[in-house]
Amino acid sequence: MKHLFTLSMLILGYFTLGQKDSKENISTLQPIHQLRIYEIPKENKQIFHGRFRDHALRIMKKYGFTIVAIRESEFQEKTEFVCLLEWKDEHAMTISWEGFMADKE
Description:
Elements lengths: L1 H28 L2 E9 L4 H18 L3 E10 L2 E10 L2 H13 L3
């Protein structure tokens, strides 16, 4: 009976601790995604797109932003600009945003 208890504790420990370790390892390998949605007044739509294309994209590239997708949608009579961003990890995301926000442009 003592051996059965010891064996069951080892198996339980393996599954409990093993799952924790594997989850932590997996989470460090997964990229961070950020979905940004901007509401654009219809009268400023062309100005917004020009500014994003000519300025924001260039600065984002400078600070390591990866743009996965860009879409525009209409929702409840509003124009929405949708941008999906990606970084290798949370630290990279923080560094990129700090640089972007501090950029003088």
